[in-house]
Amino acid sequence: MTTRRDLLLQAAMFSALPGLGFAQTRGLSLPLEPTPACGEAHDPTPEQTEGPYYTPRTPQKTALREPGMAGIPLRIGGLVLSRRCRPLGRVMVDAWQADAAGQYDNAGYRLRGHQFSDAEGRWQFETILPGLYPGRTRHIHVKLQPPRGDILTTQLYFPNEPGNARDGIFDRRLLVQMGGDDTAKIARYDFVLGID
Questions:
Q1: Which of 42, 70, 113, 181 could hold 100 in an S-S bridge, CB 3.0 to 4.6 Å?
Q2: CA atoms of 25 and 10, how far apart (whole Å)
């Protein structure tokens, strides 16, 4: 049962993201954990393979979803933080994913793009819930490159997916916090880079 405290925590977490207000957090299917306390060192986000479908030099954009595109709308965002929980601005966040049918655009930049985290470390994409293709669970690929430092290549996963248990590279530390319903989804993930 979701309590009033849970709803307030959920609202606070999502309202920190640009354009993600309280009204869009109603109907969250999972209780969200409070933001970790800052000051203590946190483990960096785990690295994962970029896979065979990476394309460099993507366009800078926050809207990966195009008008008329099939699929459940998804707004995904969060923070980019240092190991000491300090927000990191100007980090390039590059994302790519399959369409609703599980296909990647390998000729252009459909469902591909990058942006830079703002001064408070915030990032966000408007996209769709990625489709499935054989052998993999639902996921979004992401590369993060700070102005100085190493590139982090990883993947984000979705909770309660039957394919998670069968996917050989699935890592529960890369699960997004999810809300919404069958018509629109909202997700959050805070990246921690190996920077103090």
A1: 70
A2: 7
Q: Which residues, 6+ apart, have CB-to-CB distance to 55 below 8 Å?
A: 96, 106, 109, 112
Per-residue pLDDT of 7-52, as tens digits, reads: 333 444 445 454 444 334 334 333 444 455 565 668 999 999 999 9
Judge contact between 196 and 88, C-beta under 8 A.
no
Does this model's pTM top 0.85? My answer is: no
* Per-position DSSP letters for the chain, written without gaps between them: ---HHHHHHHHHHHHTSTT--GGGGTT-SSPPPPPPPTTS--PPPPP----TT--SSPPB-SB-SPTT--S-EEEEEEEEE-TTS-B--S-EEEEE---TTS---SSS-TTEEEEE--TT-EEEEEEE-----TT--SEEEEEEE-SSSPPEEEEEE-TT-GGGGT-TT--GGGBPEEEE-SS-EEEE--EE-S--
Q: Which of 110, 123, 20 is nearest to 70 (CA)?
A: 110
Give mean pLDDT, residues 105-130: 97
